[in-house]
Amino acid sequence: STKGGHLKFKSGDAKFQLGGRLMADYAAISDDRNLDGDGSEFRRARLFVKGQIFNDWGFKAQYDFAENDVVAKDLYIAYDGFDSTSIKVGNHFMPSGLEAQTSSKYITFMERSTIQDVFAVGRKNGVSVATHGDNWTLHGGLHMQDVSNDNDGRDEDYGYGVRATFAPITGKTQAVHLGASYSHQEFDDNGTERFRARPEIHTINTRPFDTKIDGVESTDNYGLEAAAVMGPFSLQTEYFAKEVETANGDFDLDGWYAYGSYFLTGESRSYKGSKGVFGRVKPKSVVGKGGIGAWELGVRYSSIDLYDGLATVPGINTAGEEGEVLTIGVNWYATPTIRFMANYVQSTVEHTGTLLADEDIDAFQVRAQIDF
Amino acid sequence: STKGGHLKFKSGDAKFQLGGRLMADYAAISDDRNLDGDGSEFRRARLFVKGQIFNDWGFKAQYDFAENDVVAKDLYIAYDGFDSTSIKVGNHFMPSGLEAQTSSKYITFMERSTIQDVFAVGRKNGVSVATHGDNWTLHGGLHMQDVSNDNDGRDEDYGYGVRATFAPITGKTQAVHLGASYSHQEFDDNGTERFRARPEIHTINTRPFDTKIDGVESTDNYGLEAAAVMGPFSLQTEYFAKEVETANGDFDLDGWYAYGSYFLTGESRSYKGSKGVFGRVKPKSVVGKGGIGAWELGVRYSSIDLYDGLATVPGINTAGEEGEVLTIGVNWYATPTIRFMANYVQSTVEHTGTLLADEDIDAFQVRAQIDF
Amino acid sequence: STKGGHLKFKSGDAKFQLGGRLMADYAAISDDRNLDGDGSEFRRARLFVKGQIFNDWGFKAQYDFAENDVVAKDLYIAYDGFDSTSIKVGNHFMPSGLEAQTSSKYITFMERSTIQDVFAVGRKNGVSVATHGDNWTLHGGLHMQDVSNDNDGRDEDYGYGVRATFAPITGKTQAVHLGASYSHQEFDDNGTERFRARPEIHTINTRPFDTKIDGVESTDNYGLEAAAVMGPFSLQTEYFAKEVETANGDFDLDGWYAYGSYFLTGESRSYKGSKGVFGRVKPKSVVGKGGIGAWELGVRYSSIDLYDGLATVPGINTAGEEGEVLTIGVNWYATPTIRFMANYVQSTVEHTGTLLADEDIDAFQVRAQIDF
């Protein structure tokens, strides 16, 4: 079937889907240090195959080929033989916060909030178990490093985590979401770790929010999340705190974001209570079938603090530890699978721990996106 | 459907195609400087998915994985909601000449003429609009750099171009094609640009036609094209001139080629008046269905001049600026999608601007090709 | 059709299959020199498309994307118009021994025996012809180097080989297999060649069985193979000898392995007399359809000798020339296409030619595998 712009096959006890996504970005950037110029990039260019076979078994192989590179995304085998429960082994999303778990196809702004670069766990090679009811989810995982790692002469780093979500209200146009997550990461070599983030602009290569910490033994990561859908309005917020355990003592990094969105054309963001994430927005009318698509406005404020007095500790090299980002966005969902986005991003980087002057980075960026 | 060796799916208002191409080359090379030896390579090894969804929207994702590399080819989203008009955004062919726009699956010789390396625009990341009638086409585009570019600290280069074609005659076995193209390229850093070409042999890594010019600000590129199909005979020719604007004045590079082909088995080259390019040759009889396929002979002469007295300008580093290439080819189209090619190539490189002796490079090269 | 967990399409005179395989490995390693630590990797992560078109023509394009790399596996065009005979051109398996020719999807242990790294020919870019009867096969090939090779200034290396197999008994649960192979390899630059092998553990990067030989002109490789299936029992063994012709005289390397396997659940290893290889094990009962899958135990002993007094020849740099590997394995075939494997590997490396102490490398490694 090619219904809805997706290529799916089903016969007997097996089904397959072949698909992918393209995101073409163009950005005009203004930066005090002139780190980067105006540019274009393919933010994502993925292909995948997934299937459900012999009733109880699933798999997915998804690769990103953007910028002429190969990066494994989902590469897993799943056992779905227990009720409402999936056990996955391989490279896949480990438990983490709401924005991190929501597909890049469905996020409200072009980039996830700047804090995700530091606080989200993302995809790792490991094992996880996820179970759910109609309005709650529970997901626990144990992971090694990512698939491109070579580990000569030392053990691979590992970690584990858990996330729980609960939705007191879960309807098509009204929803309330609450969630919490915790993860722990061990670093085998107790070396220097870098905690850094882009300012919600991906076409630049520098990550101005940037803290290096020596002798890191492990980290503990705590997250809280909440969201609400009220017809065309929605709100979403997350707070993260990371405790970094080192030979020189512990340090606390944290960050949060909050955003609101409004559909001029009356749609609602699509909350999935049994998955604890947001899904695909389906416009009430489709361009190509006599309609005008869906139009959405959004504004987000993010705050990140990677400082905690680190500059005063000897042997710790830091830069760009604090700051905030404001993003204003317009989305046009021409069809359920084609979306055009425009974001204006204003970020302020306070280089608290260094002699570097504070820095403003602004960008106007647009995206053409399809998933298939 | 697997009809004609192509994998296509259609249902409702959407259709998809999955496909690709393989070209396996083997070459024996004789070179005065002994730059390269006998070798083999996969010239192209591509996979793609393309689709038409929600009536008016199209997309294509095509990658080349030859030689264990990833290179993005087509990565675009198209809007086809206007009559006979397609608007594309992403990485795709910008307006350029006839041979450049004709798919590598359908070109008459193993390599496009040597001038294309210098004068063709090729695929770029940008936006283009193409419109057409039954026997004419008009295509304009605005482009950034290609998808693998990182642009730290400066703006990405950009350019624009246009191509128009007209076919006074456009039949299945008789056709006359006329066309013209213009493109402009800006170079943001006004640095050294290299204009260089392989001698219609791709298995060698050196590009002996090679001119470097300092302080290049922009280039203007003019192309003229003509072709004729007279039953089994066909003729094709193109001329290009490039004006290179630099801090040290302007320089003119140019080149042309002309070729003829003849089908021993009576087929005609397939001209598409509404696309302004040549398409797939379908043999009258197919190997595997009791036939012998189609047999074609061709001969091409190419001339390239990258000199323009450049050697006399200080600070300009040049080599291999002039030359010519003669190619004799035999093609065997076993089926519409499987082709075997043999080319004998004789190229002469005049190192006008350097002390290097003139150079002859000859090759006998063969290809096994399939597209699916 | 999605039957059996495979995605196949057929209509008219053409058929296509899209598929791939994933193998996720986790290993705990103990090594005297502490060369490597515990780790994870994707051993294989492949996608392919293959087809049969216009009756007599076939093709396959298969890539491995494991560890974020692109490696071409099968990239060939085949002509199958002669009875029981296939002519292939492109990158594909050249004639070699039984274990090398058996797909990694179907091998009994996680890794092929250590000798294969040195003695098997594997996939090369070239031409081969394979013919067969019900219980015999004959396969000859002529090859260049692999597809990623660049050969500036010298000719590509080439080689050729042949393999013959005969099965006096070939039934579903009873089979006897005999085979022999020979291959020759020319080295154009007569430089230093490295003959080295991993100890049946792939997550480590070092190849402790490692002999370098200078001035290698060519090698001749001889192989003998035998296997027997007796209901749930099976035995398999191979012996290889390689003669290395150098400017300093000839050297002889050799190795062998033998293994037995037993299915606790009563299945038999699946021998294909017309292909001269082992194929897919189908469990009598499938997990997901009320069954427990198939359970198999296996033990293998491998011995490799890359020494031949090489240390006494000036200008020859050697290390880790002799040794043996013992592997004990358990396989659980949950479905015909999903398999979980656990191997305990104990290897002993005798650094005969160097001052390096002898070395023990042990590993406990597990794999989750699917093919689709």
Detail the topology: elements first, then pairings:
3 copies of one chain form a homotrimer.
Chain A: E1 7-11, E2 14-31, E3 39-53, E4 57-64, E5 71-79, E6 85-93, H1 98-101, H2 116-119, E7 123-132, E8 136-143, E9 158-170, E10 174-186, E11 193-197, E12 209-213, E13 216-230, E14 233-246, E15 249-263, E16 271-272, E17 277-278, E18 294-305, E19 318-319, E20 322-335, E21 338-350, E22 359-371
Antiparallel strand pairs in A: 1-2, 2-3, 2-22, 3-4, 4-5, 5-6, 6-7, 7-8, 8-9, 9-10, 10-13, 11-12, 12-19, 13-14, 14-15, 15-18, 16-17, 18-20, 20-21, 21-22
Your description of this structure?
3 copies of one chain form a homotrimer. By secondary structure, chain A is mostly beta strands. Chain A is about 0% helix and about 60% strand. The first copy, chain A, has helices spanning about 100, 115-120, and strands at about 5-10, 15-30, 40-55, 55-65, 70-80, 85-95, 125-130, 135-145, 160-170, 175-185, 195, 210-215, 215-230, 235-245, 250-265, 270, 275-280, 295-305, 320, 320-335, 340-350, 360-370. In chain A, a hairpin with an 8-residue loop joins strand 21 and strand 22 (about 360-370). The radius of gyration of chain A is 21 Å and the shape is globular. The model of chain A has no long low-confidence stretch (mean pLDDT about 90). Chains in contact: A-B, A-C, B-C. At the A-B interface, strand 2, strand 3 and strand 22 of A face strand 1, strand 2, strand 3, strand 4 and strand 5 of B.
